[in-house]
């Protein structure tokens, strides 16, 4: 190998490393990280070779033997220029050229005999030994030599055994100045928006990308660093624009989400600064640069924004009620409506020029009005709901109506002009009326609009009270096996068909972007004494003894209770389906929980824990769902979190 950026000297083979005393090898590895050969800069050349041979097991008459040998060397000659060691005043080597090398040898052998003793073939070791040597050198100016000779031996089947390790060091080793693992490292990769970018969207969120996670990392076994964010700011002139910081999971990217829409046609400066810490003796201390100051890295750039919008972008809506595109708005679930936005939009509401209303426009052209205002404290447009018609499509519009002015002639002014008459000794004044500017008729402005539909029922509870279910059916989960589907044992769920019509939409069942992904209907199974299957079979088997003296922990997601009341699953159905849009999936969870309990108890038993009182559970099968009633609770909740009406529904599982 020849050229530039020659890599560092390779590590000694594992066969050698395994023989050298662990303390000596740790010191050797630490020394290598500060070795002159670890500096990659500089031109030069390097070469080496490695030879190994292993005979495997050999047999001759009653004797057996094995031989393993390994030989090799590495040599490197590099031009380090005017580099100097801190323990010497002159440049290293000869005109900057300095050599490094290592040579190693390893020999392992085993010799013994095999004989039949007491009816069995037995092996007796006569000699089992390993010998390894490692020589390292750096030269010239300074000259440094180091060597290790290590052996591990076993004689006469263990009658005599031992280890030995001899080492020596001659000459003077080049001592390097302490080089931080952070030196030359750019952690801040890039910022967005780009430097000097113009017409940047006023809804932009400044972002920074890092080449390393902003957290603790190990540069080497003995060097532990931590990168910390010191600041990430966005400025308009001298004013700092406030916002929230949001990291990605890997801690390699950071977003600044401004609390307000960015100012329009403005030059903004974004700046990020990080600092570096090193752990010394268990204490975090700042990494110092060559000026003995805390080492930091900063990156800044400027961009220019475009114009602010004259309407509210739908992407800025967090949630609303009525929900955008909602198909089942219950007229009596809330007396007020609202649109919650991400950040401050008060610039859209010119209250000196306009009065603001919410228009509810029906298909026949009828328009109902509701006064509205922008609540600056929580970035919300609010209004009182008018009396709307049931089962009607409405277009909701936020409109600014110009205020009437008492003076439409404010642009008219009067004055007098003096004129000279006759011979110039006499003058008179004439009155003149002037129009300073053209009057423009004020127009209404539309800020936002969307569609929704009202329900036939005034509340969610009234809609559910008219809903009954046919007898529930027990269905087994199916698994594919070749071209066929087979039932999975004990994997069951309940479903039922609706008698009549039940209209629910995605906002009700699954949530939408404009409910922040949270369904308007929260569904829970009711696990009480009326549920005989749970009370008599499942609870005593799985949940009543939980957590089995701390031996078992059931897997649950954040917010999920140990009792699986949450295991009622919404279904995506076709428009003409008669199926009730929730499945009672608790038996599936019971099956998985029982398996988890059995596996964890068996594991604890294998570790020596006493599980005598739970041993019978290990062979239990999940009892099949029994005939009876299975109730669920359905709670209506508004996008803001306020609870509405509720209803209970019964799955009636009978013969």
Distance between the termini: 83 Å
The computed structural class is mainly beta
Instruction: Note the beta-strand portion.
Output: over 45%
What percent of the residues sit in helical stretches (DSSP H or I)? under 10%
- What characteristic shape results from the CA principal axes? flat
The biggest beta sheet, please?
A: 8 strands, antiparallel
- Structure annotation, total helices: 6
* Oligomeric description of these chains: single chain
Radius of gyration: 41 Å
Architecture overview:
The protein is mostly beta strands and 655 residues long. The protein has 3 domains: 2-171, no CATH class; 188-304, Immunoglobulin-like, CATH 2.60.40.1220; 460-653, no CATH class. Helices cover 9% and strands 45% of the residues. It has 6 helices and 36 strands. Strands 1, 2, 3, 4, 5, 6, 7 and 8 form an 8-stranded antiparallel sheet that branches. The chain has a 7-stranded antiparallel sheet with strand order 19-20-23-22-21-24-27, with no helix packed on it. Strands 11, 12, 13, 16, 17 and 18 form a 6-stranded antiparallel sheet that branches. The relative contact order is 0.07. The model is unreliable at 25-30 (pLDDT under 50).
Please describe the topology of this protein:
Elements: E1 2-4, H1 14-17, H2 22-33, E2 43-54, E3 58-60, E4 63-79, E5 97-117, E6 120-139, E7 144-155, E8 160-171, E9 188-192, E10 207-210, E11 216-220, E12 223-236, E13 239-240, E14 243-247, E15 253-258, E16 267-280, E17 283-286, E18 296-304, E19 317-321, E20 336-341, E21 354-361, E22 367-375, E23 380-384, E24 393-402, E25 412-421, E26 426-435, E27 445-453, H3 460-465, E28 468-469, E29 473-481, E30 484-495, E31 498-499, H4 506-509, E32 521-525, H5 532-543, E33 568-570, E34 582-584, H6 586-606, E35 628-637, E36 643-653
Antiparallel strand pairs: 1-2, 2-4, 3-4, 4-5, 5-6, 6-7, 7-8, 9-10, 10-15, 11-12, 12-13, 12-16, 14-15, 16-17, 16-18, 19-20, 20-23, 21-22, 21-24, 22-23, 24-27, 25-26, 28-31, 29-30, 32-35, 33-34, 35-36
